[in-house]
Specification:
With 493 residues, the chain is α/β, with parallel strands linked by helices. The chain has a single domain, classed as Alpha-Beta Barrel (TIM Barrel). The chain contains 18 helices and 13 strands. Strands 1-2-3-4-5-7-10-11 form an eight-stranded parallel barrel, surrounded by five helices. Strands 6-8-9 form a three-stranded mixed beta sheet. A two-stranded antiparallel sheet has the order 12-13. The longest helix is centred in the middle third of the chain and has 25 residues. The protein is globular and about 60 Å long. It binds 1-deoxynojirimycin. 1-deoxynojirimycin binds next to loops.
Length: 493
């Protein structure tokens, strides 16, 4: 503290609350009476979001459902992987997870108490088709019928993801999973089957969640299921089959869904952030956006792989037909992006693509998840690039959030001030994007509650509700109080 700011002025500056200890701090409680568009500081329009902005939360099937052997569900690659010793921290599995399969009504009430207008969940393919293809298992889809009805009864719009990584094991065994074109075809059939039955009530469908994670981490680095380390042509062909599966699914959904169904994607784009916001670095970041996402979102939006990608891959470039590129780029109604971490870039005239990546210095702050570098402006640049480069008219932030080392305080509450600070900073940048008319229509906070964080097991908590896995008790963290206020005021608080 500088000499000029003594204790008295410090108290004045921070307000009395600045010195209240965590355990004395009152819960912010629900303030659903606050009118929408009314920011925390009255008259501070800089914090308001557009009217009708959709606030939501997100989860995924294998991370929360448990009940892996119930009602005819078949095994997925994540059952196999998590049951292989040494693959997941503490050899944790999703066998029980949050027991959401049985507690979904409780979880819908958590959402209701937050005031969210939408919920993004995923459908477990092996519940619906235990072998990935072949005969369906109607009991599997029944669970999602119950969930959707419960959400609608509580005025929460369901947004469903069809693939969030729990690939039926049988497809891995028979076709090498996404290595085989057959998996892309089976995915489309499953997508058509599900959407024919749910889209009387579910109006927003995401095909696939995060190519950039399940292919790269699962088929290339071997850290996620199925634990492969592919390289060269095999890897590029696997990437190609994944985007092809997306395109075939879009066509199948269009053919079988009820009218009014909107289809999109949820991709964890690499987000180039210009090191300094000058026109030259910004142009470099835009070029980087196309190139760094060449194998996934770029080919989906443009219907072609970039020249630079194909040239760099050389003989290992994927084999494809013009017809497949057309399928992959089937028009979407919206683009969803998962936003966590930045990739800084700078202009570089000596590079054929005009940019250079700037690695994170060792001291760059990050969350307990080693990959989650904290740079709020990623939530500005991500949607801005998507809107500017591809003229997207409807964008959703399908995930944003952070891991933290949450521990309940003596009063049982988790005061996750780090997560609140993270969310506030990121949302301020999202607000900057909407103020510039970047067409972001909604935001899904990851995650509604702590859950199975893949290879990290239950060690990295991302929830705004604390889950005691021994009792399955859910407790709102401070971040849940924060988010409730954001939603009620439709503004950053
Ligand atoms: C993205 C994934 O979609 C989700 O499953 C995961 O838990 C979060 N990132 C946090 O790592």
């Amino acid at each position: 503290m500088s000499k000029k700011v003594n204790r008295r002025t410090f108290v004045k500056l921070t307000g009395a609350a600045g010195l209240v200890s965590a355990t004395e701090m009152p819960s912010l409680g629900g303030s659903n009476t606050v009118p929408q568009g009314s920011s925390a500081r009255s008259g501070d329009a800089l914090r308001d979001f557009p009217r009708g902005f959709i606030w939501g939360t997100a989860t995924a099937s294998y991370q929360i459902e448990g009940a892996v052997k119930e009602d005819g569900r078949g095994p997925s690659i994540w059952d196999t992987f998590s049951h292989t010793p040494g693959k997941v921290v503490n050899n944790a599995t999703g066998d029980v997870a949050n027991d959401h399969y049985h507690l979904y009504k409780t979880d819908v009430q958590l959402m209701k108490a937050l005031g969210v207008k939408a919920y993004r969940f995923s459908i477990a393919w092996p519940r619906v088709f235990p072998n990935g293809d072949g005969p369906p298992n109607p009991k599997g889809l029944d669970f999602y019928n119950r969930l959707v009805d419960e959400l609608l009864a509580n005025d929460i719009q369901p947004f469903a993801t069809l693939y969030h990584w729990d690939l039926p094991q049988s497809l891995q065994d028979r076709f090498g999973g996404w290595e085989g074109r057959e998996t892309a075809k089976a995915f489309a059939d499953y997508a058509g089957y599900v959407t024919a039955r749910l889209t009387d009530r579910v109006k927003h469908i995401f095909t696939i969640n995060e190519f950039g994670a399940f292919i790269e981490v699962g088929y290339r680095w071997g850290i996620h299921a199925p634990g492969l380390k592919l390289t060269g042509l095999r890897l590029n062909q696997t990437r190609h089959h994944a985007v092809l599966g997306h395109g075939l699914a879009v066509q199948a959904i269009r053919a079988s869904a009820k009218s009014g169904t909107r289809v999109g994607i949820a991709e964890n784009i690499t987000i180039p952030v210009p090191v300094v916001e000058t026109p030259t670095h910004v142009a470099a970041a835009e070029s980087a956006m196309r190139e760094m996402n060449a194998q996934y979102l770029t080919v989906i939006m443009e219907g072609k792989y970039t020249d630079y990608y194909l040239k760099s891959a050389g003989a290992d470039a994927p084999k494809f037909t013009p017809e497949e590129l057309k399928t992959i780029s089937s028009p979407l109604d919206f683009v969803g992006i998962n936003v966590y971490t930045p990739q800084f870039v700078r202009a570089d005239a000596s590079s054929p693509v005009g940019y250079a990546q700037v690695p994170h210095p060792k001291s760059f702050p990050h969350a307990p998840s080693f990959w989650l570098f904290i740079a709020p402006d990623a939530l500005y640049w991500g949607p801005r690039h998507v809107a500017k480069l591809w003229n997207a008219k409807e964008i959703y932030i399908t995930e944003n959030g952070c891991s933290a080392s949450d521990e309940p305080a003596a009063d049982g509450k988790v005061y996750d001030t780090d997560r609140v600070t993270y969310l506030r900073s990121y949302l301020t940048q999202l607000r900057r994007a909407t103020a510039e008319n970047v067409p972001v229509r909604g935001y899904f906070l990851w995650s509604l509650m702590d859950n199975f964080e893949w290879a990290d097991g239950y060690t990295n908590r991302f929830g705004i509700h604390y889950v005691d896995y021994a009792t399955q008790k859910r407790t709102p963290k401070l971040s849940a109080d924060f988010y409730r206020e954001v939603i009620a005021r439709n503004a950053v608080v």
